Amino acid sequence: MTTWRRSWLMCACFSLVCMPALGWFYPEWKSGIEWPMPPIIQPGDATTAPSDAIVLFDGTNLDAWEGGEKWTIENGYAIDRGNIKTKEKFGDCQIHLEFASPEEVKGKGQGRGNSGLYLMGRYELQILDSYDNETYYDGQCGAIYKQHPPLVNACRGPGEWQTYDVIFTGPRFNEDGSLKSPGHITALHNGVLIQNHSELLGSTKWDEPPKYNAHPERDSISIQFHGNPVKFRNIWIRDLMPAEEMPGENEGPLDSPAATDGESSTSQSDAK
Ligand code: MG
What we know:
CATH architecture: Sandwich
Low-confidence stretches: 249-270
Bound molecules: magnesium ion
Structural class: mainly beta
Number of helices: 2
CATH superfamily: Exo-inulinase, domain 1
Radius of gyration: 25 Å
Order of helices and strands: HEEEEEEEEEEEEEEEH
Strand content: 25-35%
Number of domains: 1
CATH class: Mainly Beta
Largest sheet: 8 strands, antiparallel
Helix content: under 10%
Protein backbone atom coordinates (compact mmCIF):
# COMPACT_ATOMS: atom_id res chain seq x y z
CA MET A 1 0.00 0.00 0.00
CA THR A 2 1.31 3.38 -0.91
CA THR A 3 2.00 5.99 1.75
CA TRP A 4 -0.81 8.14 0.32
CA ARG A 5 -3.33 5.31 0.55
CA ARG A 6 -2.22 4.40 4.09
CA SER A 7 -2.68 8.01 5.21
CA TRP A 8 -6.10 8.22 3.63
CA LEU A 9 -7.17 4.97 5.30
CA MET A 10 -5.98 6.15 8.73
CA CYS A 11 -7.81 9.43 8.28
CA ALA A 12 -11.04 7.63 7.35
CA CYS A 13 -10.78 5.31 10.35
CA PHE A 14 -10.20 8.27 12.68
CA SER A 15 -13.25 10.03 11.28
CA LEU A 16 -15.53 7.01 11.67
CA VAL A 17 -14.44 6.11 15.20
CA CYS A 18 -13.53 9.39 16.86
CA MET A 19 -15.65 12.12 15.34
CA PRO A 20 -19.02 10.78 16.51
CA ALA A 21 -17.60 10.42 20.03
CA LEU A 22 -16.53 14.03 19.91
CA GLY A 23 -20.00 15.12 18.92
CA TRP A 24 -19.02 16.37 15.50
CA PHE A 25 -21.67 14.32 13.71
CA TYR A 26 -24.12 13.92 16.62
CA PRO A 27 -24.65 17.22 18.49
CA GLU A 28 -25.76 16.96 22.12
CA TRP A 29 -29.52 16.92 22.74
CA LYS A 30 -30.76 19.43 25.30
CA SER A 31 -34.30 19.66 26.67
CA GLY A 32 -34.46 23.43 26.23
CA ILE A 33 -36.23 23.75 29.56
CA GLU A 34 -34.80 26.52 31.70
CA TRP A 35 -34.87 24.89 35.12
CA PRO A 36 -34.51 27.06 38.21
CA MET A 37 -31.30 26.33 40.10
CA PRO A 38 -31.91 23.77 42.86
CA PRO A 39 -31.47 25.53 46.21
CA ILE A 40 -28.18 24.90 47.94
CA ILE A 41 -28.68 23.48 51.42
CA GLN A 42 -26.47 22.03 54.11
CA PRO A 43 -27.27 18.34 54.47
CA GLY A 44 -27.52 16.97 57.98
CA ASP A 45 -25.80 13.95 59.43
CA ALA A 46 -26.97 11.17 61.72
CA THR A 47 -28.10 13.61 64.39
CA THR A 48 -28.79 16.95 62.69
CA ALA A 49 -31.45 18.08 60.22
CA PRO A 50 -30.79 19.57 56.77
CA SER A 51 -30.70 23.36 56.78
CA ASP A 52 -34.10 23.67 55.05
CA ALA A 53 -35.94 21.34 57.44
CA ILE A 54 -38.44 22.31 60.11
CA VAL A 55 -37.29 20.72 63.34
CA LEU A 56 -40.24 19.21 65.19
CA PHE A 57 -38.26 17.78 68.11
CA ASP A 58 -34.61 18.42 68.89
CA GLY A 59 -34.50 16.73 72.27
CA THR A 60 -35.40 19.80 74.32
CA ASN A 61 -39.12 20.51 73.95
CA LEU A 62 -42.30 19.55 72.10
CA ASP A 63 -43.51 23.11 71.50
CA ALA A 64 -44.26 22.24 67.86
CA TRP A 65 -46.88 19.72 68.97
CA GLU A 66 -50.35 19.89 70.45
CA GLY A 67 -50.48 17.48 73.37
CA GLY A 68 -46.72 17.47 73.84
CA GLU A 69 -47.11 18.41 77.51
CA LYS A 70 -48.29 14.85 78.15
CA TRP A 71 -44.97 13.37 77.10
CA THR A 72 -41.87 12.93 79.24
CA ILE A 73 -38.64 14.47 77.97
CA GLU A 74 -35.31 13.21 79.30
CA ASN A 75 -31.77 12.73 78.02
CA GLY A 76 -32.57 14.15 74.58
CA TYR A 77 -35.53 11.94 73.84
CA ALA A 78 -39.28 12.01 74.53
CA ILE A 79 -41.50 9.20 75.76
CA ASP A 80 -44.92 8.66 74.18
CA ARG A 81 -47.63 9.29 76.80
CA GLY A 82 -50.53 10.38 74.57
CA ASN A 83 -51.53 11.25 71.01
CA ILE A 84 -49.79 14.37 69.73
CA LYS A 85 -50.12 16.33 66.50
CA THR A 86 -48.15 19.12 64.91
CA LYS A 87 -49.44 22.65 65.30
CA GLU A 88 -48.33 23.34 61.73
CA LYS A 89 -50.06 21.55 58.88
CA PHE A 90 -48.29 19.76 56.07
CA GLY A 91 -49.04 18.19 52.72
CA ASP A 92 -46.36 16.57 50.58
CA CYS A 93 -43.28 16.20 52.76
CA GLN A 94 -40.17 14.32 53.78
CA ILE A 95 -40.04 13.22 57.41
CA HIS A 96 -37.24 11.85 59.54
CA LEU A 97 -37.79 10.45 62.99
CA GLU A 98 -36.05 8.07 65.34
CA PHE A 99 -37.78 5.74 67.75
CA ALA A 100 -36.99 3.00 70.22
CA SER A 101 -39.34 0.33 71.46
CA PRO A 102 -39.40 -0.19 75.24
CA GLU A 103 -36.36 -2.12 76.47
CA GLU A 104 -38.50 -4.14 78.78
CA VAL A 105 -40.46 -6.48 76.54
CA LYS A 106 -44.11 -6.63 77.52
CA GLY A 107 -47.08 -7.94 75.59
CA LYS A 108 -47.12 -9.46 72.13
CA GLY A 109 -48.44 -8.79 68.65
CA GLN A 110 -50.07 -5.38 68.40
CA GLY A 111 -49.60 -4.88 72.14
CA ARG A 112 -45.82 -4.54 72.00
CA GLY A 113 -44.13 -1.20 71.31
CA ASN A 114 -47.11 0.09 69.35
CA SER A 115 -47.24 3.68 68.13
CA GLY A 116 -47.61 5.11 64.65
CA LEU A 117 -46.67 7.96 62.36
CA TYR A 118 -49.87 9.45 60.97
CA LEU A 119 -49.49 11.44 57.77
CA MET A 120 -52.18 14.11 57.64
CA GLY A 121 -53.59 12.60 60.83
CA ARG A 122 -55.19 9.70 58.96
CA TYR A 123 -52.63 7.57 57.08
CA GLU A 124 -50.61 5.41 59.47
CA LEU A 125 -47.11 4.11 58.93
CA GLN A 126 -47.04 1.56 61.72
CA ILE A 127 -44.51 1.73 64.54
CA LEU A 128 -44.33 -1.54 66.43
CA ASP A 129 -41.78 -3.76 68.11
CA SER A 130 -41.68 -6.36 65.34
CA TYR A 131 -38.38 -7.88 66.50
CA ASP A 132 -39.21 -11.53 67.08
CA ASN A 133 -42.86 -10.58 67.53
CA GLU A 134 -45.43 -12.00 65.16
CA THR A 135 -48.55 -10.19 64.11
CA TYR A 136 -50.50 -9.79 60.89
CA TYR A 137 -48.11 -8.68 58.17
CA ASP A 138 -50.01 -5.57 57.12
CA GLY A 139 -49.94 -4.46 60.75
CA GLN A 140 -46.28 -5.05 61.60
CA CYS A 141 -43.64 -2.36 61.91
CA GLY A 142 -43.24 -0.48 58.63
CA ALA A 143 -46.67 -1.45 57.31
CA ILE A 144 -49.08 1.09 55.91
CA TYR A 145 -51.66 -0.12 58.33
CA LYS A 146 -53.90 -2.83 56.84
CA GLN A 147 -52.92 -1.82 53.30
CA HIS A 148 -49.29 -2.69 52.54
CA PRO A 149 -46.89 -4.89 54.58
CA PRO A 150 -43.28 -3.67 54.60
CA LEU A 151 -41.06 -5.15 51.87
CA VAL A 152 -38.79 -6.54 54.61
CA ASN A 153 -38.68 -6.60 58.40
CA ALA A 154 -35.76 -4.26 59.18
CA CYS A 155 -36.47 -3.96 62.92
CA ARG A 156 -33.78 -3.60 65.51
CA GLY A 157 -34.24 -5.09 68.96
CA PRO A 158 -36.17 -3.60 71.87
CA GLY A 159 -34.50 -0.47 73.26
CA GLU A 160 -32.32 0.10 70.18
CA TRP A 161 -32.69 3.37 68.28
CA GLN A 162 -34.22 3.04 64.81
CA THR A 163 -34.86 5.48 61.99
CA TYR A 164 -37.75 6.21 59.67
CA ASP A 165 -37.23 8.32 56.57
CA VAL A 166 -40.50 8.89 54.77
CA ILE A 167 -41.47 10.61 51.53
CA PHE A 168 -45.17 11.35 51.44
CA THR A 169 -47.30 12.59 48.57
CA GLY A 170 -50.78 13.48 49.72
CA PRO A 171 -53.93 12.63 47.80
CA ARG A 172 -55.68 15.28 45.73
CA PHE A 173 -59.41 15.74 45.48
CA ASN A 174 -61.69 17.31 42.93
CA GLU A 175 -63.99 20.14 43.92
CA ASP A 176 -66.92 17.72 44.19
CA GLY A 177 -64.95 15.70 46.76
CA SER A 178 -64.12 12.79 44.46
CA LEU A 179 -60.57 11.45 44.39
CA LYS A 180 -58.34 13.14 41.82
CA SER A 181 -55.14 11.24 42.63
CA PRO A 182 -54.28 8.87 45.49
CA GLY A 183 -51.58 9.46 48.07
CA HIS A 184 -48.27 7.57 48.08
CA ILE A 185 -45.71 6.67 50.71
CA THR A 186 -42.08 5.73 50.25
CA ALA A 187 -40.30 4.75 53.45
CA LEU A 188 -36.89 3.58 54.64
CA HIS A 189 -36.53 1.82 57.97
CA ASN A 190 -33.01 1.91 59.36
CA GLY A 191 -31.86 2.89 55.85
CA VAL A 192 -33.65 -0.02 54.17
CA LEU A 193 -36.46 0.51 51.66
CA ILE A 194 -39.68 -0.91 53.12
CA GLN A 195 -42.36 1.00 51.15
CA ASN A 196 -41.67 1.84 47.51
CA HIS A 197 -44.12 4.49 46.32
CA SER A 198 -46.93 2.46 47.85
CA GLU A 199 -50.37 3.72 46.93
CA LEU A 200 -52.65 4.73 49.75
CA LEU A 201 -56.09 3.19 49.39
CA GLY A 202 -57.66 5.56 51.88
CA SER A 203 -57.49 6.20 55.60
CA THR A 204 -56.02 3.46 57.81
CA LYS A 205 -58.59 2.50 60.38
CA TRP A 206 -58.61 -0.56 62.59
CA ASP A 207 -62.29 -1.34 62.19
CA GLU A 208 -63.06 -0.17 58.65
CA PRO A 209 -61.70 -0.89 55.18
CA PRO A 210 -59.66 1.91 53.65
CA LYS A 211 -61.72 4.69 52.19
CA TYR A 212 -60.98 8.18 50.98
CA ASN A 213 -62.90 11.14 52.28
CA ALA A 214 -61.98 14.53 50.89
CA HIS A 215 -59.81 16.69 53.10
CA PRO A 216 -57.60 19.76 52.74
CA GLU A 217 -54.20 19.48 51.10
CA ARG A 218 -52.52 20.16 54.44
CA ASP A 219 -53.12 18.66 57.85
CA SER A 220 -51.22 17.84 61.01
CA ILE A 221 -48.69 15.05 61.37
CA SER A 222 -49.62 12.89 64.36
CA ILE A 223 -47.88 10.35 66.55
CA GLN A 224 -50.10 7.70 68.05
CA PHE A 225 -50.26 6.62 71.67
CA HIS A 226 -51.24 2.98 71.97
CA GLY A 227 -50.43 2.47 75.62
CA ASN A 228 -46.74 1.72 75.11
CA PRO A 229 -43.93 4.09 76.22
CA VAL A 230 -42.14 4.28 72.87
CA LYS A 231 -39.22 6.76 72.80
CA PHE A 232 -38.70 9.36 70.05
CA ARG A 233 -35.90 11.75 69.11
CA ASN A 234 -34.63 13.81 66.15
CA ILE A 235 -37.89 14.54 64.35
CA TRP A 236 -37.75 16.89 61.38
CA ILE A 237 -39.74 17.56 58.25
CA ARG A 238 -39.14 19.13 54.85
CA ASP A 239 -42.11 20.71 53.12
CA LEU A 240 -42.41 19.42 49.56
CA MET A 241 -45.75 21.02 48.72
CA PRO A 242 -45.69 22.58 45.24
CA ALA A 243 -45.92 26.34 45.68
CA GLU A 244 -48.77 26.72 43.19
CA GLU A 245 -50.93 24.28 45.18
CA MET A 246 -50.49 25.96 48.54
CA PRO A 247 -53.93 27.07 49.73
CA GLY A 248 -54.44 30.60 50.96
CA GLU A 249 -54.53 31.40 54.65
CA ASN A 250 -58.27 30.92 55.09
CA GLU A 251 -58.85 28.90 52.02
CA GLY A 252 -59.32 25.20 52.49
CA PRO A 253 -60.02 23.54 49.15
CA LEU A 254 -62.58 21.34 50.85
CA ASP A 255 -64.28 20.90 54.18
CA SER A 256 -62.15 20.27 57.25
CA PRO A 257 -61.63 16.58 58.10
CA ALA A 258 -63.59 16.98 61.31
CA ALA A 259 -66.58 18.11 59.30
CA THR A 260 -66.33 15.41 56.67
CA ASP A 261 -65.04 12.16 57.98
CA GLY A 262 -63.88 12.57 61.55
CA GLU A 263 -60.70 10.73 60.66
CA SER A 264 -58.20 13.30 61.81
CA SER A 265 -55.82 12.55 64.66
CA THR A 266 -58.70 12.73 67.10
CA SER A 267 -59.88 9.37 65.79
CA GLN A 268 -56.67 7.53 66.56
CA SER A 269 -58.16 5.79 69.57
CA ASP A 270 -59.69 3.43 67.01
CA ALA A 271 -56.46 2.73 65.27
CA LYS A 272 -53.69 0.27 65.84
MG1 MG B 1 -49.97 1.85 65.62
